[in-house]
Design brief:
- Its EC number is 2.7.2.8.
- It catalyses: N-acetyl-L-glutamate + ATP = N-acetyl-L-glutamyl 5-phosphate + ADP.
- Catalyzes the ATP-dependent phosphorylation of N-acetyl-L-glutamate.
- Keywords: Amino-acid biosynthesis, Arginine biosynthesis, ATP-binding, Cytoplasm, Kinase, Nucleotide-binding, Transferase.
- With 283 residues, the chain is of the alpha/beta class.
- The chain has one domain: Acetylglutamate kinase-like (Carbamate kinase, 3-Layer(aba) Sandwich), CATH 3.40.1160.10.
- It is 39% helix and 21% strand.
- It is built from 10 helices and 14 strands.
- The strands form 4 sheets. It has an 8-stranded mixed sheet with strand order 5-8-2-1-11-13-14-12, with helices on both faces.
- Strand 6 and strand 7 form a beta hairpin.
- The chain is globular, with a radius of gyration of 18 Å.
- The N and C termini lie far apart (44 Å).
Length: 283
């Protein structure tokens, strides 16, 4: 069995009806680009997500996987007795914290994802936002330290990796004008990458089902006005604020933007079938 055949067989769904629908849905993937943001909180479910990515790639889609790593960064900061501080959902990053961020994102998480995807039969390449000047930015706020605000995305290297038949797996760091490294919010990197690549779909995988409204129920569809209202009321808070803003920004260029639960088996396949999963952002 070839690598591609193995990848497809591993994510074949059991229901005959569902499988028939899947074949119809997945028959027109060639030429489409899907950007997936794998949140740090869902890294323990990375195997299933990687299987879906490899399957869709084998079926003709161009897949770009961006990842975070907040919980693991926190673990290392705690081990090293370095204070953890957030402002408006963004990590305050001094020079010492930045060293840990770089070590965890590039030296640990990215390499582990590449190794696991390769073991599953995928053709993948690990990248960092500083490679090929993919993510260019500047310090967003002096009080946040080395936290970057994105000025530009240069997707040439990512496109080259895709054209060569690989899935790029990207760690969210960026370059400042002086060549220093910046800690970038992974949601915003995924959003801007999806726009730059003219992606057909951007999916944020988190450890929750989506966005919940004031009554505690899941919101299936959300527009910008509704999102801003929930932020003002303090219902959307902390790290969900930049995630929601990233979704709204991407919606300007990407037809389908969605937050879904990364713990759901074969969640990427289900979202492609437009099943009622997560929260989808609309104009």
């Amino acid at each position: 069995m070839t690598t591609s055949s193995l990848a497809v067989s591993e994510c074949t769904l059991s229901s005959t009806t569902h499988a028939n629908k899947s074949r119809h849905t997945f028959s027109s993937l060639k030429g489409k680009t899907f950007v997936v943001k794998l949140g740090g909180s869902t890294l323990e479910y990375q195997r299933m997500v990687l299987q879906d990515c490899i399957c869709l790639h084998a079926l003709g889609a161009s897949i770009v996987l961006a990842h975070g790593g907040g919980p693991m960064i926190n673990e290392w900061l705690t081990k090293l007795h370095i204070p953890i501080c957030f402002q408006h959902g963004l990590r305050v990053t001094n020079a010492q914290t930045l060293e840990v961020v770089r070590m965890v994102l590039c030296g640990q998480i990215n390499q582990e994802l590449v190794a696991m995807a390769t073991l599953l039969g995928g053709d993948v390449v690990g990248l960092c936002g500083t490679d090929g000047n993919i993510v260019q930015g500047h310090i967003a706020d002096e009080s946040l330290g080395f936290v970057g605000e994105i000025d530009a995305i240069h997707p040439m290297l990512v496109r080259q990796v895709i054209d060569d038949g690989y899935i790029p797996i990207i760690a969210p760091l960026g370059l400042a004008p002086n060549g220093s490294c910046l800690n970038m919010n992974a949601d915003l990197v995924a959003s801007r990458l999806a726009s730059a690549l003219q992606a057909s779909r951007l999916t944020f995988l988190s450890d929750i089902d989506g966005i919940y409204g004031s009554d505690g129920s899941l919101v299936a569809e959300m527009n910008e006005a509704e999102a801003q209202t929930l932020i003002e009321r303090g219902i959307i808070t902390n790290g969900m604020i930049p995630k929601v803003n990233a979704c709204l920004h991407a919606l300007e260029d990407v037809p389908c933007v969605q937050i879904a639960n990364g713990r759901t088996p074969h969640v990427l396949l289900h979202t492609l079938e437009d099943l009622p999963l997560g929260t989808r952002f609309v104009h």
